[in-house]
Amino acid sequence: MAAAGNHAAQNMQRLADLITQRRASLGWSKEKAADEAGISYTTYTRVEEAQNVQAQSLVKIESALGIAPGAGRAVLRGDMSLKLADGGELLDGSKITPIQPEWLEEEVQRAVTDAAIGTIPEATGEKIQELQAKVIETLRRRGVLPESGE
After folding, report:
1. What is the pLDDT of residue 40?
2. Tell me, what's the pLDDT at 91?
3. For residues 99 and 148, what is the distance between their CA atoms, to the nearest angstrom?
4. What does the pLDDT read at residue 1?
5. What does the pLDDT read at residue 92?
6. Helix locations, 27-100, DSSP H
7. How far apart are CA 56 and CA 137, in angstroms?
8. How far apart are CA 123 and CA 121, in angstroms?
């Protein structure tokens, strides 16, 4: 009996990890995920803490996060991955490391500098800085980087 309970707890933790991973991949806070699912923050948090929630709450979370219908229940029954509505899947044990926007901006600037020096050796420092600023502005406009001060 303890073994069955242990498997249930492991499956619940796997689901919690995969739901957390999916939310992080969307760049959402727990608050946003709860709002998008139309459930309370407390209920949403219970899922990420591997606690029981009503089946209807799990269905709402699946829909909001772009998870295939019934995929959460399948993980609770022992599936090792979480199927996504777009046909993809999240695998147990894989990790997403959130990229910090300020780190990404610095890396983009370095990459632009390296590329400019490597392809346009006559480019002045001022022109390289203009190019960096234009690339950062474009990435912000596309939503890849947050606006300054966010």
Report:
1. 97
2. 82
3. 16
4. 34
5. 67
6. 30-37, 41-48, 55-65, 71-76
7. 42
8. 5
Query: How many CA atoms does the CB half-sphere of 26 hold within 13 Å?
Result: 18
Residues 6+ apart with CB under 8 A from 88: none
- Count CB neighbours of 96 within 10 A: 12
The pLDDT value recorded for residue 144 is: 82
Model pTM score: 0.59
Environment class of 16 (CB within 10 Å of its CB; exposed 0-12, middle 13-18, buried 19+): middle
CA dist list (Å): 66 to 6, 73, 83, 139, 144: 29, 15, 9, 25, 20
Residues 6+ apart with CB under 8 A from 138: none
Q: What is the mean pLDDT of each run of 10 residues along the chain (150 residues)?
A: 68 94 91 97 96 95 96 94 85 60 86 91 92 92 77
Q: Which residues does 26 contact at the CB level (< 8 Å), separation at least 6?
A: 33, 65, 66
The pair of structure tokens assigned to 57 is 């709450």
DSSP state of 144: S
